[in-house]
Specification:
D-Maltodextrin-Binding Protein, domain 2; Arc Repressor Mutant, subunit A; four-stranded mixed β-sheet; disordered N terminus; 44% helix
Length: 300
């Protein structure tokens, strides 16, 4: 590609092209960028003249081959600029540290408060946004750079991530003590509960799929009249004697012990999940992010 003139691209122009490529509409892109459509059109046209090539085909609006290359390079440049700003701020401590962490909803309750308590003592200017969503949503968010760290048991849909192992997590069968099921061992047979009411997670969730899978393998026909997606809700229902369910090991580890709730490992079921923290390889981690991971490993 040959350029006729010196290139005086700025950050805004790169952002304009990226957003226009995403929106595929000058009207929508201008609205998203908070500029007028004529201003956007003029900026794109001037940039194309400067580069001596068209970045977009107009009818319908889509990237040319040159445009695809430009967008790829522009995204990398903008990411490098952002990483540089973050790194310099982290070194000089001239700005408030900000971290975005994605955590599956059922996990936030038990370890996030402990981590944040430590971080606030070490970093007074530190601020954090906790995004609580299902795993599939969080995996998409980290792909789109909407979060810095992703906590989960499933790797994002790419190899371009650093993975820090935290814990090999098992599962517990949790049931009401008032049912009078006596078991002096650390493990209990799932078949004992074949006639009991199961409180199920939605099947799209990992735990929901797991409960159904384990019962199917044991030839248990599930009896259930309650289904939800929140672990705290499931736990509360078990406490009221409404049913039995499966909950993550760490969830049970951090919760205060309840006299009316019993929990056991499931006999002959060797199931563990690799709980890890993921972040992009090209992402510069500020000090609070690094400490977040270190503290997480310490408390579990």
């Amino acid at each position: 590609m040959f350029f006729r003139y010196n290139i005086f691209m700025n950050i805004n122009q790169m952002k304009y092209v990226i957003v226009l490529a995403e929106e595929k509409s000058f009207t929508k892109a201008a609205r998203k960028l908070f500029i007028s459509q004529p201003s956007l059109s003029k900026s794109i046209k001037l940039l194309e003249e400067e580069l001596a090539t068209e970045l977009f085909e107009r009818n319908p609006l889509k990237l040319t081959y040159s445009g695809e290359i430009f967008v790829k390079k522009a995204k990398n440049i903008l990411k490098d600029i952002e990483n540089t700003k973050v790194q310099i701020s982290d070194i000089t401590n001239n700005s408030k540290s900000h971290l975005r962490v994605g955590v599956p909803s059922h996990r936030c309750y038990y370890f996030i408060p402990k981590i944040l308590k430590n971080l606030q003592n070490e970093f007074p200017n530190f601020s954090i946004v906790i995004e609580e969503y299902p795993t599939n949503v969080l995996k998409k968010m980290i792909e789109e750079d909407k979060i810095d760290l992703f906590i989960g048991t499933e790797s994002p849909n790419s190899k371009n991530y650093v993975k820090t192992h935290i814990y090999n997590e098992g599962i517990y069968l949790v049931f009401p003590t008032i049912w009078g099921i006596n078991c002096n061992e650390d493990e209990i047979h799932l078949e004992i509960f074949k006639d009991k009411n199961f409180i199920l997670f939605e099947e799209s969730l990992t735990l929901g799929h797991l409960i159904r899978k384990l019962c199917s393998e044991k030839g248990i026909e599930i009896h259930s009249n309650i289904e939800c997606h929140n672990a705290e809700t499931v736990y509360s229902m078990i406490r009221e004697g409404l049913g039995v369910s499966i909950l993550p090991e760490l969830y049970m580890k951090f919760l205060p012990k309840q006299k009316n709730i019993s929990f056991k490992k499931i006999k002959n079921i060797n199931y563990e999940r690799d709980l890890s923290v993921f972040y992009k390889q090209d992402k510069f981690l500020i000090k609070p992010a690094t400490r977040f991971i270190e503290i997480f490993k310490e408390i579990v």
